[in-house]
Amino acid sequence: MTDDVRNIVLGVAATGISATIGWLTRTYLWRRRLRRKQDFFGLPGNSECMLVVNREAGRDGAVHRFDVFALLELSALIKDCGANAQIVWHDIAQQGFGERTEFCVGGPVSNRRMAAHLHSLLPGVKINTDPEPGPDQGAFQIGPERYRMEPGTAEYVLLARLTAGQDARPVFLFCGQRAITNQAATRYLARHHEKLARKHGGNSFCLLLKVVNSQAYGPDVVELVADVTRAAQAPAPLPAADTSAPDPAPSKRRSRRTASQ
Question: Is pLDDT of 88 > 80?
């Protein structure tokens, strides 16, 4: 074998080894990234999850188009994890949480299951569900802070990942003041799930997001207002005691004086 032939053979071998190492490295990184994504969403390969969808107010059996877009965003995430999804109406989803991952979309007015989750898991969140127009319609009350909606200009949505235990599958909540904010929250999760997984790991969190100028930018411009996990999970304050009732002590004292006379 001449020196030229030997150099060619060694070059081809080195190229093959380098390509193999590169392929193995990329495969390892891809699998590790996939495992982290599956762990964050609680979606191991071939697992089942539940998409709980609301019904648009005033239209029997209809789903708002922005909520449909939100479901499409979530379906892509679920497919990437190699899992399967079942779509369930909010008023027939009668099962506990933790057995399989759940994605719940919609506010407490149009989604009964969302209302139950807020009551049980986020008792510190109060949402004004009064149908009468007013400045506080749809407003969020989280602890001492109130977040009012300015339709089309500034609207808020809660994005939460909640777990009932170490081995329980998570529940993801997308609770917005309008349907377009639900889609904005699902898109935010799709874009930032890796960052959220690094920050929160497998722990629960609740984020307050603001959708900016949705009438011009749709669901694309989203700002993180605050991590409100602690305030949202805090027990709701007890109602103040009624101090308007008359004190019965004076009447009792008058009765005792009358009896002594």
Answer: yes
Task: Look at the alpha carbons of 66, 71, 73, 74 in this order and tell me if their dihedral is positive or negative.
Answer: positive
**Nearest-angstrom CA–CA distance, 29 and 189:** 21
Contact 57, 109 (CB under 8 A): yes
**Greatest CA span in the chain, whole angstroms?**
135
Contact present, 140 and 129 (Cβ < 8 Å): no
Helix (H) or strand (E) holding 251: helix 249-260
Number of H helices, E strands in the chain: 7, 10
Measured over the CA atoms of residue 172, residue 126, residue 70 and residue 209, the dihedral's sign is: negative
Nearest Cα residue to 71 out of 93, 50, 46: 50
* Of the candidate ranges 43-47, 91-95, 102-106, 120-124, the one whose mean pLDDT is the lowest: 91-95
